[in-house]
Amino acid sequence: MNIETLSGLEVLQGIIRGDLPHPSITTTIPMEFKEVGEGYVIFEAMATDAHLNPMGGTHGGFAATVLDSVTGCAVHSRLEAGVPYGTIDLAVKMLRPVPQNQTLVAEGRVINLSRSLGVSEGTLKDETGRLLAHATCTCMIIRR
Description:
The chain is an alpha+beta fold. The protein has a single domain (about 5-140), classed as Thiol Ester Dehydrase, Chain A. About 20% of the residues lie in helices and about 35% in strands. It has helices at about 10-15, 25-30, 60-75, and strands at about 30-35, 40-45, 85-95, 105-115, 115-125, 130-140. Strands 1-2-4-5-6-3 form a 6-stranded antiparallel sheet. The longest helix has 17 residues, at about 60-75.
């Protein structure tokens, strides 16, 4: 399967089906694609002892990475075949400590898509649905 010939949505659907490999970041930060549609994605993620800051809590980079992933993938789901993108701005608000060894749900949604920019937002919630972190993201769309 050549990802250059697939739309962003088709690439993400291929990952969920297992036809395409998961990105390597999903090993470093345990994340699993659960649902994808045009303009939105849902991941499950889990912070472990491998993601601790010096105080023993979950490092803020965990939430930032998960939110960068879901907001970027939401934009990717709206792009045509062969059109890459990259995050140029990510604003994360940490609202509560991120628990360890608990299934977390991250959701990303496109807010606006133009020819050169994709703007999206994301949430990270715990098992009970409590909001842990929120992000907005701007992606540069690289059309050739």
